[in-house]
Amino acid sequence: MRTAHSVADVRAAEAALIAELRRTGPGEDVLMNRAATGLATACAGLLGRVYAARVVLLVGSGDNGGDALYAGAQLARRGARVDALLLNPDRAHARGLAAFRGAGGRVAGDAEVLDRADLVLDGIVGIGGSGGLRPDAAELVLRAELGGGLIVAVDLPSGVDADTGEVVGAAVHADVTVTFGTWKPGLLIDPGASHAGAATLVDIGLGDHLPDPAACALQDADVLVPFGWLLPTADKYRRGVVGVVAGSKTYPGAAVLAVGGALRAGAGMVRFAGPGRVADAVRAAWPEAVVTDGLPSEAGRVQAWVVGPGLGTDKKARRRLAEVLDSDVPVLVDADGLTLLAEAGGSERSAPTLLTPHAGELGRLLQVGPAAVEAARLTHARRAAARYGATVLLKGSTTVVVPPDGPVRVNPTGTPRLATAGSGDVLAGLAGTLLAAGREPVDAAATAAYLHGLAARLAAEPDGAEADLVAPGPVTATDIVAALPAAWRHVAGA
Ligand SMILES: NC(=O)C1=CN([C@@H]2O[C@H](COP(=O)(O)OP(=O)(O)OC[C@H]3O[C@@H](n4cnc5c(N)ncnc54)[C@H](O)[C@@H]3O)[C@@H](O)[C@H]2O)[C@@H](O)CC1
Ligand SMILES: [K+]
How far does residue 375's CA lie from ligand 2's centre (Å)? Predict the structure, then answer.
C-alpha cells in the first residue's frame, strides 16, 4: 500500500523527529540533508554521468529551496556545473546557500543557464506553498520546460496543492518528483498527479511519527482474492449473490456489461431484474445469470444491489430505484440512478451506499459544473460523501474513493483506455459483487477500480499490466469484461 499524509501530519512528524534528534545529538538540517542526499542520488541516476553535467537550481525562499541547494552542493562536489537561480535572494536558505557556494556552486545572474541545462531542480516551493506559481517563477519554469533538460521536482511540483492535488494557475510539469518522508495526496490525485511525472519516495525517518494516512493507493499485493473462493466449503452465498437493475430499451448493452462485470468479479450468483427486451439480451449474453423481467422486489434474495447503468430516468426507472434503495442490503448507485438520486436530493437509507459517479454526475449530485469537479476532485468527492452519507467513487483520470470517514483511496491502475462507453457499467457490476461478498464499500470500490484498470491494460497488451499509453490497440468495455480473469490472476500471483 502506498500511503500519503496531509501537510499538517508531515509537519507534526517532522517536528517530533527533529526534537528526538536534538535530544540524541545531531545538529541542524539533519532531515534536510537526508532529503538532499536522496535527491542528489536520484539526480545522479538520471544524469548517468555527473561530472560536467549542467544542473540548474530554481530556489524559492523556504526549506524546499534549502533541499535544492544542499542537493546542488552534493552534485557540484561530484563535478557537475551547478547554477542556482534565486527567486528571492535575500530570503534563500542561508546555510544551504553557504554549503552550495562552499562546494563550488554558482549563483546565476541570468536565466539563460536554463537553455543549456541537462537537469533543472524545482525547489521553488514545497509543502509550504499556496496557490499557483507567482509570475516570476512561472516565467522561469516555462523557460526551463522549453530548454529541454529533465525537470526534477523537489518534494512536489511547485504550484500543486500537496493535500488535494489541486492546481490553481501555473504549476511545474516535472519529469520526475522526489518526495520526502511520505507520499503527499497531491502526488496521487489529478491534476497534481499528472504534474509529478515518475515519482519516488526518499525515506527520511519519519515512519514512527506518522499517524494514519490521509490517502492510500493499493498495489497488487493489497488486492485480496475474496476469501470465499479459496474455501473448500465455498458456496454461492459466501461468494456473494448480487442483484443488477440496469438497462432500458435504449441501452440494453449497459445491462449486459454490468452483469458481465458482476459475474467476472466471481459472484456466486447474479440476479438480474429488467424489462422484457433487456432481460432477453442479458439471458442471451449470460445464460448463467438468473433473470426476471419483473421488478427488483420480485428477483429473489440478494446480498447487494447494483442499480442505474443505462436505466433511464422515466417513472419505471424511478420505481425500480426506489425499491432497491428501500432494501436493507448494500446498494451501489451508478449512472442514471445517480441522476435520479440527485433529483430526489438523497435517500433515507441506513445500510451502506456506494455512489460511482463521473465528474458530470458528481456535479449533478452537488449542483456544480463538471469543470469545478475536475479541478478539485477530492474536495467534491468528500462533499458528496458527506451530503449523501455514502462512500463515493469518483471516476476519472485518477479515480478516488472517499468513505464517510477514514483514509481516501486513490487508484493507481487507471488508464485513458477506460474512457470508453460501457466501461463504467462493467465497474459497477464488479464493485457490486465485491459488496455482495461482504467487503466494506471503500474496499469493494478500491479493489474494483484497481482490477478494472488492470483488466483494461491487460486487454490492450496481455503481457503488459504495466503498459499504459505505450501499448497499442484500442479496448472496448466487452474486452475489459473478458480480461477480468487475467486481472485476478495477475494480482493473485503478486
Ligand atoms: N521541515 C522539515 O524538517 C523538512 C522539510 N523539508 C522541505 O521543506 C519543505 C517545506 O518548507 P517550508 O515550510 O519552508 O515551505 P516551502 O519551502 O514549501 O515554501 C514556503 C515559502 O514559499 C513561499 N510561497 C508560498 N506559496 C508560494 C507560491 N505559490 N509561489 C512562490 N512562493 C510561494 C512562502 O512565502 C514561503 O516563503 C518541504 O516541502 C521539503 O522540501 C525537507 O527538507 C525535509 C525536512
Ligand atoms: K518543488
Answer: 20
Note whether 209 and 250 are same-domain residues. no
Do residues 395 and 381 lie in contact, with contact meaning Cβ atoms separated by under 8 Å? no
**Interval between CA 61 and ligand 1 midpoint (Å):** 7
- Whether 188 and 230 map to the same domain: the answer is no
Which atom of ligand 1 lies nearest, measured to the CA of 125? 18
pTM value?
0.90
Is the ipTM above a cut-off of 0.90?
yes
Ligand 1 nearest-atom number relative to CA 61:
37
CB count within 10 Å of CB 461 equals 16
Q: Low-confidence residues of the chain, pLDDT below 70? A: 27, 225-233, 463-472, 494
Enumerate the β-bridge partners of residue 203. Answer: none
3-state secondary structure of 59: strand
Domain boundary pick from 216, 241, 256: 216
* 351 and 259 in a common domain: yes
Judged by its nearest atom, the ligand closest to the C-alpha of residue 159 is: 1
Q: Is 166 in the same domain as 259? A: no
What residues make up the domain containing 64? Answer: 2-216
CA of 7 to the centre of ligand 1 (A): 11
